[in-house]
Amino acid sequence: MIVEYRTKSLEKTCTQAKVAIRAYGQEMAIRLQQRIKQIQSTDTVEMLLQFHIGRCHALHGGREGQYAMDLVHPYRLVFTRHGDVLQIARIEEIVDYH
Question: How many CA atoms lie within 13 A of 13 on its CB side?
Fold first, then answer.
């Protein structure tokens, strides 16, 4: 899949290790990089869901249409799907929504 980001700041955090370490620490930066690579290496969101890659799951309620993958507890990487033929994952935020 192609990965897009909601903001330039979020893109820097997700793609530059130094920025992620400064914001969230070493363990979180490693996990964040891992999740981004997992999203990029799959063809569809359904594949992430079917094989529970990164404990990917659909969100409900006020977050209908969004998906989340585990990072370091309690944080999640939240993204939405765009496009039907060519799927694009748009990273929305890194958040503890519990």
Answer: 19
Q: What pTM value is reported for the model?
A: 0.93
Per the CB < 8 A criterion, the answer to whether 54 and 38 are in contact is yes
> Which residues pair with residue 81 across a beta bridge?
89
In three-state secondary structure terms, 46 is helix
75: nearest Cα among 45, 98, 54, 52: 98
Phi first, then psi: what are they for 83, rounded to 5°? 85, 150
The H-assigned helical ranges of the chain are 8-15, 17-24, 26-41, 45-50
CA angle at residue 49 from 47 to 55, to 5 degrees? Answer: 125
Handedness of CA 8, 10, 14, 19 (dihedral sign): positive
pLDDT (tens digit, 9 = 90+) per residue, 60-86? 999 999 999 999 999 999 999 998 777
